[in-house]
Amino acid sequence: MPATRKVVPRKRAQLSNEDSEPESLHSDALDDLPPKKRTRSSNPKSNSPSKPKPKRRKHKAKEDDEDDVDGSDLDLKEGQQVVGRVVQAPKTGWVPPGQVSQNTLDFLAKLKDPACNDREWFKLHEPVYRRVEKEFKEFIEAFTNMLTDVDSQIPPLPPKDVIHRIYRDIRFSNDKTPYKKGLSASFSRSGRKGIFAFFKPGDESVIAAGAWCPAKNELATLRNHLLRSTPAAKTLHTILTSKAFTTHFGPPRPHPHGDRQSVFGHEDELKVAPKGVDKNHKDIALLKCRSLAVSYRFTDAQVVAPGSEFIDMLRGVADVMTPFVHCLNDLMTLPVDDGSDVENEENDTGGSEEGNSEDGDE
């Protein structure tokens, strides 16, 4: 009996030791470990199966490819939103350097639409504009090379120095349209005066030359040449009445309906004679002008003509404009000779030597 009593406590002690082992090392616990960790885990990622994850990501990528405008999966910051899809430039339809493509005219035509002449629309179509800008710079480079051949006074400046920005200055304008409806550049020996080129769809592309709103002292010098009939003033008359000039720009007199003709018809033209000038002066029409400039218009078909056809047409007009620009530069910069023909001056102001002497005798 005592032996029996000793055996029983030993078994109980052994069981007690087994029960006291850590649960993680128990064979039954090891078998049950994965399900226990899954059920007790607070991490939601451990609950989701490992394989479905990449499937959902692939599905997201497919949705993004199908709909670029949907920005629901984009990592947008606070206050940001998707406004549209960026439009890429056409891959075809562009022309070699020195030409203008229909793609360029099509883009400029859209800027005539108020719905498109908008910063948001322009931002979405900026890749198209950058491609148009590149083509225009290449064209202006060829245009500059042609002009420097025609007029040695024009410096061979790079395109970036002669091309005007497409952005309008709306600070003091009631028209808040942000972008111009065409591309332009200007050339001269003094920078941005002289010959001006503007390309706009709708048969409105022009090449122009002259002096637009010259400074007060320049305009006064020009008028003094006309009042005194100086050699420079006589050269101007010769140019305006030449056959080549009248063929391109019209007869040298104001249009009966006030339209543009030769150097006349500008919006800033005076309605009456300038102060101190006789209204019967023989050059009164020219003396009323505050801007002396001419322009020649091209159709869209001429602008996009293949090869060098358009550049050749521009050369023909520039040949006629060049003497006119040189004459205007002389009229605005050369001082009037004090020894000019007094008789011509008196005749220009409507008086005569004989009449003036009679008035003096009285």
What does this structure look like?
The chain is an alpha+beta fold. The protein is built from 16 helices and four strands. A four-stranded antiparallel β-sheet has the order 1-2-3-4. Residues 1-34, 58-66 and 342-362 have low confidence and may be disordered.
Class of secondary structure makeup: alpha+beta
Q: Could you tell me the radius of gyration in angstroms?
A: 41 Å
- The percent range for strand residues is 5-15%
Largest sheet: 4 strands, antiparallel
- Distance between the ends: 175 Å
Number of helices: 16
Strands of the widest sheet, in order across it, are 1-2-3-4
Indicate the percent of residues in helices.
40-55%
Q: Which ranges are low-confidence, i.e. pLDDT below 50, for 5 or more consecutive residues?
A: 1-34, 58-66, 342-362
Quaternary structure classification: single chain
Say how many strands there are.
4
Helix and strand succession?
HHHHHHHHEEEHHHHEHHHH
Protein topology:
Layout: H1 2-19, H2 27-40, H3 44-47, H4 52-66, H5 102-110, H6 119-124, H7 126-150, H8 159-162, E1 183-187, E2 194-199, E3 205-211, H9 216-228, H10 231-240, H11 243-249, H12 284-287, E4 292-298, H13 300-303, H14 309-333, H15 342-348, H16 353-361
Antiparallel strand pairs: 1-2, 2-3, 3-4
